[in-house]
Design goal:
Family (chain B): Belongs to the ComF/GntX family.
Oligomer: heterodimer
CATH topology of the largest domain in chain A: Rossmann fold
Pfam families (chain B): Pribosyltran
CATH superfamily of the largest domain in chain A: P-loop containing nucleotide triphosphate hydrolases
Organism (chain B): Salipaludibacillus keqinensis
Helix content of chain B: 25-40%
Domain Phosphoribosyltransferase (chain B): 216-261
Shape of chain B: globular
Largest interface: A-B, 19 and 17 residues
Strand order of the largest sheet of chain A: 13-14-12-15-16-11-17
CATH class of the largest domain in chain A: Alpha Beta
Structural class of chain A: alpha/beta
Number of domains of chain A: 3
Number of helices of chain A: 17
CATH topology of the largest domain in chain B: Rossmann fold
Strand order of the largest sheet of chain B: 3-8-7-4
Structural class of chain B: alpha/beta
Largest sheet of chain B: 4 strands, parallel
Protein name (chain B): Phosphoribosyltransferase domain-containing protein
Largest sheet of chain A: 7 strands, parallel
Order of helices and strands of chain B: HEEHHHEHHEHHEHEHEHE
């Protein structure tokens, strides 16, 4: 969309907004049509907006939708007429800004994309000229060179209400220590941007450790963000958080929500990476769950999203069992304050993986047969009537592995799941209920899935996909319940890799530290 | 977990899923004879190219169940034919109508409109990823070659409000390889066709188009006109546009689209 930028001599006083959207420019205006510009083509310092008019009664709907967010004009006009939006612009409550930077490098201001491959070009019907658009964040509404982003500048109205922590469990000593250390970090005034790492083993009860810190921040009137890698995890966290904070507005944002839910007001937000992009300078406490598991690990995209969503002076907390090397290094040299929780909440050791040589399994698999070592282990598990997770490196191997299991162990129920499986949720819940004995899976189930008394085997553990962190996470599936704190974790391989050895060392080290 | 070797060997990126993939290296590639691959093999494999048409008129793919009007022993091509012999039920029904007794609308599509193509078209049209048009524009030009002499190429126009909403006319981008004349305009803003059933579509499009100023100026009598659009579902949009051309004196109107609906989509 183009705007008419009113020249100085036409404005009676400097309090007037300078920008009028094209649809509101009178057709008979003498030279309006020649002066229509896109925001990207306008020098930044020319976008002056009036001061917030305290006497103006802003629309509730608009305030709820826009507080803490930076949205595309199209997202708002889908629900609210442009006329009303422009009124709020004139009263200083809303400001326009360009959604793209063309200098020094073409950049999408919403998602931070700079990759030339991920920009398209069209002859735009709105700005009537060649117009670039971002292909990287297309699923959230198209950002193009002529589309404005809107921010809210009205009163923040920090809620002075008392938030209740409704969680009544008790923390283990190790959990408690971490929770207190984290709570200590939360303050009402940060000196710039601060970071904190919670390095907690799988099954240590990470979510519960976060409650005191979240509670403290909420009571200071600060909105809190919990960012997680996958929609599955968002949906799992939502009921727990809602139960823990009964009088707080807890909202989950993930792809596929209806617009009415997408822009709802929230005090505690649980969101996937993409949904972070809608928030702007809003959260002073950001918790990134499973920081190493984001689709693109902790790379530029997530960093950009978090940087935009948090306020300038804020605290970002990384929570994970397997921090990426960069964070470990920073923690070790003392640049990143951190706390370690090397013990599970039930106090038992983490099961240490065993490495078992499986011979040339690829060759055997071609004949739909499994290595003997795996068959023997399988039979043993079936005799004990245990449930088994079998991790495989690639989707393509799955049918052959399933055939192999069926051939060597009759009357055993086997299912296979992978990331794009439409029945993924049903299959996993069937396994949880115990209806399936063996679940063959790719690495998608490496985190967040808790099944009581499950045993784990990794088939072809020497594959590149099984990194140290993936293997540690996989081993963390076992022995999570206090009734059955132990179990088998076996890496079946055709040659040990460094990653396998590092994973075992990592787990042993955590166990050793936990005793102290 | 990709190593530097992968990046060295994989230079292409899929236009739809944005993943890197390695193009096939063979003699046609070395001699510059092969087309540049825009889709990765995984995405390419999900497209169902129409290789044999069941109906000579509307270009319905042959595999379709419930339309046993074709002798399966005869090998049929995907290109336009000059004398249509086999007609599907829908096209015979159209032929019974007065104004279609002496005129025809031959249509060919590149692909069957399956679930995957539906996603691709949604990304293209509704999400607005205009670059996707480059996947099809060259192929549409090739498909139109079998139609013989074409004098004028035009596209189905969008209503002004829809054009503003989308920012571009998808049909115009698909026709990027042709020299397009804008012969038509919409008389009224119609609801999205994708939300209607067959009868609703036909009723809604009665007189939906008229000649544009450019169209009025252009002498159409005796001309063969090609219309480019995105999806052929019942053909009512294209027929409604074609009847305007026939009234203006066109001798034959043909159409090419990217996708031919086959009624097998998940709802």
């Amino acid at each position: 969309m183009r705007f008419y930028s009113i020249p100085k001599e036409e404005r009676p006083n400097s309090k007037m907004a300078r920008l009028i959207p094209e649809p509101f420019v009178p057709i008979d205006h003498p030279h309006a049509m020649n002066l229509l510009v896109r925001l990207t083509d306008l020098p930044h310092n020319q976008n002056t907006f009036p001061q917030v008019n305290g006497t103006f009664q802003e629309t509730d709907e608009l305030r709820k939708m826009m507080t803490g967010r930076r949205l595309l004009l199209d997202e708002i006009t889908a629900l609210i007429p442009l006329q009303l939006i422009q009124e709020h612009v004139n009263q200083g409550f809303i400001q326009y800004e360009s959604a793209m930077m063309t200098q020094p490098k073409l950049t999408c201001k919403r998602c931070g994309n700079q990759d030339p491959f991920l920009f398209g070009k069209i002859q735009c019907a709105r700005c009537r000229q060649s117009c670039r658009y971002c292909r990287a964040c297309l699923m959230m509404g198209r950002v193009s060179q002529c589309s404005p982003l809107l921010t809210w500048h009205g009163d923040r109205r920090p809620s002075k209400k008392e938030h209740i922590l409704g969680w009544e469990g008790t923390l283990s000593p190790a959990q408690n220590k971490a929770a207190e250390a984290l709570k200590e970090q939360v303050s009402d005034l940060y000196e710039g941007h601060q970071e904190f790492l919670v390095w907690a083993v799988c099954g240590s009860g990470k979510t519960e450790m976060l409650y005191p810190a979240i509670h403290k921040a909420l009571n200071q009137g600060d909105p809190v963000l919990v960012a997680t890698p996958r929609t599955d995890v968002v949906l799992e966290l939502l009921p727990r958080m809602t139960a823990a904070f009964p009088n707080t507005k807890v909202r989950a944002y993930y792809g596929g929500l209806e617009p009415s839910e997408r822009y709802s007001e929230a005090e505690l937000v649980i969101a996937t990476t993409h949904q972070l992009l809608r928030f702007y300078h809003h959260f002073s406490l950001v918790i990134i769950d499973e920081v190493d598991a984001f689709p693109y690990t902790y790379d530029a995209k997530l960093q950009y999203a978090v940087k935009n969503a948090r306020t300038r002076a804020s605290l970002t907390v990384y929570v994970t069992a397997t921090p990426p090397n960069l964070l470990i290094r920073q923690a070790k040299i003392g640049k990143l304050p951190h706390v370690r929780v090397p013990r599970r909440y039930h106090g038992h050791d983490l099961p240490v993986p065993k490495l078992t040589w499986a011979g040339n399994w690829k060759k055997r698999l071609e004949k739909d047969r499994l290595p003997f070592a795996l068959i023997f282990w399988f039979r043993e598990q079936i005799e004990k009537s245990n449930q088994v997770f079998l991790f495989v490196p690639h989707i393509q191997l799955m049918p052959k592995v399933v055939n192999g299991i069926k051939a060597s162990c009759q009357q055993v129920t086997v299912e296979a799941v992978h990331a794009n499986d439409p029945d993924r949720r049903e299959k996993v819940s069937k396994f949880r209920e115990g209806a399936t004995r063996v679940l063959v899976t790719t690495t998608i189930l490496e985190r967040g899935v808790t099944v009581k008394g499950v045993q784990v085997a990794v088939f072809g553990a020497e594959d590149r996909i099984f990194t140290e962190s993936a293997l540690v996470q996989i081993a963390g599936r076992v022995g999570r319940s206090p009734d059955q704190p132990d179990g088998d974790v076996i890496f079946f391989h055709h040659g040990k890799t460094k990653e396998m050895i590092k994973a075992v060392r990592h787990i042993k080290l955590m166990n050793k530290e936990g005793i102290r | 977990m990709t190593s530097w070797r992968d990046h060295l060997s994989e230079t292409n990126r899929c236009l739809y899923c944005h993943e890197v993939f390695s193009g096939e290296v063979n003699w046609t590639w070395a001699l510059g004879l092969s087309e540049e691959k825009l889709l990765c093999p995984a995405c390419e494999g999900k497209l169902e190219e129409i290789k044999e048409t069941g109906c000579d008129m509307c270009g319905r793919p042959v595999e379709q169940e419930g339309h046993e009007f074709v002798d399966s022993t005869v090998k049929r091509s995907a290109s336009f034919v000059s004398k249509p012999q086999f007609l599907c039920r829908d096209c015979s029904r159209w032929g019974e109508e007065d104004r279609w007794k002496n005129h025809s609308l031959k249509h060919r599509a590149l692909y069957s409109y399956n679930d995957f193509l539906q996603e691709v078209m949604a990304t293209f049209k509704y999400r607005g990823d205009a670059e996707i048009a480059t996947l099809f524009s060259g192929k549409l030009k090739k498909l139109a070659k079998s139609a013989g002499r074409i004098d004028v190429v035009t596209v189905i126009p969008l209503a002004d409000d829809r054009l503003w909403e989308r920012g571009f006319n998808q049909a115009e981008l698909l026709a990027g390889a042709f020299r397009v004349r804008h012969l038509l305009v919409r008389t009224v803003s119609t609801e999205k066709q994708s939300k209607r059933d067959r009868r609703g579509r036909m009723a809604a499009l009665e007189g939906a188009f008229r000649m544009s100023e450019e169209g009025e100026r252009l002498e159409l009598s005796g001309k063969r006109v090609l219309i480019v659009d995105d999806i052929y579902t019942t053909g009512s949009t294209l027929r409604s546009a074609a009847s305007v051309m026939y009234e203006a004196g066109a001798v034959e109107v043909l159409a090419v689209t990217v996708a031919r609906a086959t009624g097998k989509l998940k709802k």
